[in-house]
Design a protein that fits this description.
With 278 residues, the protein is mostly helical. Helices cover 62% and strands 0% of the residues. The longest helix has 20 residues, at 135-154.
């Protein structure tokens, strides 16, 4: 993977340095002269389309607002009841900005937001489009991605009653997508879904599809800029996000990752979350 979420993000430093140079160009003579040679090299590597300090100026509660509450709740549980109350007030904006920033700084750092690139500075990738999705859209996306895993198991089934039971457990849109997935070759190896168990419990099938879809999304994000993974994982709840994060740690070959990314984008367009390419 390019860099590490839990380490210093060299791209973020490079972009911040370049933003400073572009901001002060014309105001002070030779702004690059203020940087050490190593820093000049970092600036030259940064190539954002619209260099600006604005993404680095936003108050820390703005990116915190994009984090699902379950990630924050886990951290707050370690604090005293009194501090938890203060932190909740800070998150809700019920305190003076200076006190609010002071209280939320620990959350910001513990979550790793200080190491994440601002979304507008992410390297170009079709997968960046997922940043515009809501949590509910990501959940629906992964439920559809899990249909690819179901299609692998159903290819060896000939009992029509089983198909009937599955259709009762899925939405009409999912049934249509499942039929399409069964006609396509899938890049992942088949893994048994425990058919006999979920045939007796349709809700179990829904849970399995979600779990498999989250794993597939994580595999598709392997090799992407870690900040993109960070934002998507933390937009989901703690349980779902952890599954994506664990899958993204796998050793996935670039060609396999590209095929899985194509599936993610295809489902996104099928659900009208993305426009069809022109």
């Amino acid at each position: 993977m390019k860099g590490q979420i839990n380490g210093v993000n060299p791209l973020k430093r490079s972009y911040a340095l370049k933003a400073l140079v572009e901001t002060y160009r014309g105001r002070v003579p030779a702004p690059m002269a203020y940087f050490a040679q190593a820093e000049r090299g970092q600036v030259e590597k940064a190539t954002p389309n619209t260099p600006s300090l604005e993404p680095f100026k936003c108050p820390i509660w703005e990116p915190l607002a994009q984090i699902h509450s379950t990630w924050i709740d886990r951290l707050l549980q370690k604090e005293s009841p009194e501090k938890q109350l203060l932190m909740q007030q800070a998150l809700q904006g019920n305190l003076l900005p200076s006190l609010r920033a002071f209280l939320l700084k620990d959350l910001y750092l513990h979550l790793g937001l200080d190491k994440a690139l601002p979304p507008s500075f992410l390297p170009g990738s079709p997968m960046n489009a997922l940043l515009s999705f809501s949590k509910d859209q990501l959940v629906r996306l992964t439920a559809y991605l899990g249909l690819y895993d179901l299609s692998l198991e159903l290819r060896k089934v000939i009992d029509k009653e089983i198909f009937t039971q599955i259709e009762r457990s899925l939405s009409k849109g999912q049934v249509r997508y499942l039929e399409m997935a069964m006609r396509e070759a899938d890049p992942l190896p088949e893994e048994a879904l425990g058919m006999q168990e979920w045939l007796k419990n349709p809700q179990r099938l829904v849970h399995l599809l979600q779990e498999k879809g989250l794993r597939r999304l994580g595999l598709a994000l392997t090799g992407q800029e870690p900040s993109l993974l960070f934002y998507l994982v933390h937009k989901l709840d703690l349980g779902r996000g952890t599954l994506v994060l664990e899958a993204a740690k796998g050793d996935v070959k670039p060609l396999l990752a590209e095929r899985l990314q194509s599936q993610v984008l295809h489902v996104s367009r099928e659900l009208n979350f993305l426009k069809e390419p022109a």
